[in-house]
Amino acid sequence: LPRIQKATLRIPTLRGQLPGSHQPPRLFQIHDLFVQGAGQWGPEGFDSTLERVQAQVAVTGWPRAEVRMAGRLTPQQFDLASLHVRLPQSEIRASGALTLPHGHVQLRLDMPRLQLDELGFSPPVPLPQLVRGVLEVHGSVSAPQVTAHLHYAEGQLDIDLTTQLAVPVPRYSATLRLDHLNMAHVLAGAQGTLRAHLRIQGTGFAEAQRRAEAELRLETDGLTYAPGLNARVQASLTGNTVRFTEVQVRSAPVTLVARGTLSPTAPVTLTYDVTLGDLAPLRRLVGVPVQARGRLNGTVQVVFATENSHHRIPHKLVYMPFLVYDLLDHHIKIPVQ
After folding, report:
1. pLDDT band at residue 111, thresholds of 50, 70 and 90?
2. Distance separating alpha carbons of residues 212 and 242, to the nearest angstrom
3. Whole-model pTM?
4. 3-class secondary structure for 306-319?
5. What average pLDDT score do residues 13-22 get?
6. Distance between CA atoms of 310 and 290, rounded to whole angstroms?
7. DSSP assignment of 107-140, as one string?
């Protein structure tokens, strides 16, 4: 059968456009493309080996990247022996395999350093730009399982995601665990660490099929602005409507308990109960002494505007304390009996 012992392809420059769904197409240029490989026809088809693929890739709005790859493609399987992408401040390596025709997949993505702003995503200051870690995908194309172990803001982020896509109503579940996030990267000047656990389970992506349940738990240790801060949120999603069945935020300065509904097609209703405690730690955050004791509770309702209506925000407090603010002393008091 015919055999290609060695084949080489060189293209000095290749230009094109990447389509965008909600934005103009991005121009791309590939410089110094070099492909070297071999292959042979067999009873089941062509068996090819990519010994070396390398190029310089430039996309509008992104820094230039150096790409190197090696692998093998047969009628039954694609083996990615190595993929190395290097940007000015980032480096990504990958290896894996895709088995055909059943679509079994195995992929490992190593990120020794990944600068988020180089990929067009810039977290707000003071959150850092650098992420390190490993992402793995296994299972099948129709039912992938994804795990990630990332280091960010001096914390450890672990993600587990499972999906079932080849069913009439797709299903998914995800768990996110965050440990020892340095709060100085979230609030400038803050001390302490944050732990978080998020669990999501749902079905469907189209509005008529969309159902989901979510639970979020937050705990802090040594947080200067809000000692003892912890939170719990339970919510459900039906179509485009989010129902918060439980929202609890507890700390030495403030305790909040709330529940409500958010919907783009119905009035937004939020019922809340706020207890004010020792607000002294908040002085570091707001820059002025704050004193308060008491409790606020009530209901907020918002009706979104349409072509024939206007915004309406009725706000009724069960008990409204009075507020005194002295501009000279920068002193706030909210006395409540």
Report:
1. very high
2. 9
3. 0.80
4. CCCCCCECCEEECC
5. 84
6. 36
7. EEEEEEEEEGGGGT--PPTTS-SEEEEEEEEEEE
